[in-house]
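During the no-cost extension, the postdoctoral fellow (Dr. R.K.) reprocessed legacy sequence entries with the updated structure-token encoder. One reprocessed record is reproduced below for audit purposes.
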Amino acid sequence: MKNFLFILTIFSLISCSKDEKSFSDGSRIAINGTIPGVHTKSTGSSSWEELPLNSAAKVLVFNSNGYELFTINDSGFQAKAYSGTAPALAFLDADNRFIGCLNAGGLNVLPLVSLKDGDNTIIDLSSLTLSGKLVIPGNDPIGDKIDLNVDEVNWYKELGAYYESLSTNIDANNDGVTDFIDNMDLRLSTIFDIDCGKWGLNDLEPQIDDTANFFRVNYTLRVEGGKNFSPQNQTITFAGPEGSPYSGINQSNYNICPNGNFISFFSRPEWQPFSVGTYSLTIDNKNYSLNYSTVNSKHFFILAEPTLNTNDKNQVVSVTVEYKDMNNEPVNAENFVYQTMVQIDGTARISEMGKLWENPASKQNTELYTFTLPNPVALSEIGQVKVCYLDLIGNTYNLKFIARLD
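Re-encoded structure tokens follow.
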């Protein structure tokens, strides 16, 4: 298979993502379209040869918490996805073979933000056509139903190359069936840990390190495998990239999620980044070839600045977060950030507010700006504040702030 596939990036230190199919509740945005002359009978073939769009039988919708399949009936479909995410739509035939992915306005994702009619918005793609592996809508929702400015559109466009390079992972076990369908999918993600400066305090603004120099980033690669892997051996190896393999790639953790998926973490010496390339993942003596890419942590970074608010006893009662770009200009967080979590640490974890990778249907963690501590905490006990955010396409940034000196 060639070209783009939306591969989810999953974040967790020890926790796991939710069930990939848990999309039954909550308000979602309708995404409609038609495919002229569609016929949905199986061809019986198992190869990844070029397929016509009129052989599409299903629409596979990805978002930051999983996927859902929608059936194409009488040449039409109505898919759904949550607002505040940036899903991708893949078109499959009756045998779950990949045909192509939606490309609207030059974007390989559909950012469901700044919606014209809010959560009542209906995205009508109209008649679809296929160009290579790109499915082009007759009605372009970007700039119409989805009101993004030029800079925001360009931001998402640059993510296209990132996703395109991951396309081979759709069938890592080479059985001709999309791995998500049989719960044998493998997902790669990068966790960015960044030291940013000092927190704000009441009326004092945060002290941010020089943004030209503060990207002291620690990189961790996270692998999640579908529940049907059921590894017998917790030792998993990750090697590569092909042609110039690294030495010293270490596996740091292995966990089984409540939904049966496994997760494992890998790092290089001194937390160096992993370069773009083809890697080999070995599970129970079976090798899987995975194409890895990452985004530039500096280019796609939104600075989430925390300010601690105290009461008359000098106890912290809340944390407010302001979002800015690299030029220190305020940005509309809803167009870039899906969920935010604030962690307060002393000699140990003191408080945690918000949660990442919550099922969108539960709609519990929708706060991006103001976080109230369950119990006041003496300012003198706090040594670090971490703002962790999940962006619309699933990347996670852990931004660290230390105590002020004034």
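The chain has a mean pLDDT of 80. Helices lie at 150-157, 159-164. The remaining legacy entries will be reprocessed before the final report is submitted.
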